[in-house]
Amino acid sequence: MRHYYRCIDCLSVVATEAAIQPVQVPPSYVRSYGTCDACEGRIEYLGRVQGENLQKTEWRVPCDSRCTNALGPNCDCQCGGVNHGSHRVVEVVIETGNVPRVMIPPDARTKAETYRILYASVREAHSTRYGRVIDLKREGRYLNVADWMLFQEGVRIGSRILAARELRTHSARNKKLDAIFNEILNACVGVCA
Asked: Of 65, 64, 46, which Cα lies nearest the Cα of 56?
């Protein structure tokens, strides 16, 4: 059985005959499947080959987490009370798409470095523009109306940064990050130190 993996930075795809056992990496304890030899990026698991498609196995709640984690007696979901308040999880097989081609482009390291520099620039600009109010909110401090609006803007842009990182083509990912970077810089004109 073949297992497919992809580098998060250079987007190179590789396949192995045996599954790589993931390790938990602190401080966020994300699952790591190794390091890309082309660019030193983190590897993510795409799935195993099953016929013409890739499949992943995950542990999920059997119906709805509101049902399985319920504290009260009322159940109105499809399980009819079987899973109600049980805190159960079951193994679920998920179809993740067609089998990718195995490839490591010759410019993988260059693409990864370009992405990392752009991502670091966006994070720095975000921190410069919104870091103060995000830290105040994290500390539980009161935010006046102007700071609250700035905080909300920072959260929205932070969500867009995360969404851009999830894109799986270099041009789309870099284009989105570049647009966010320019948006932050335009908002900073005359304001950011």
From this structure: 46
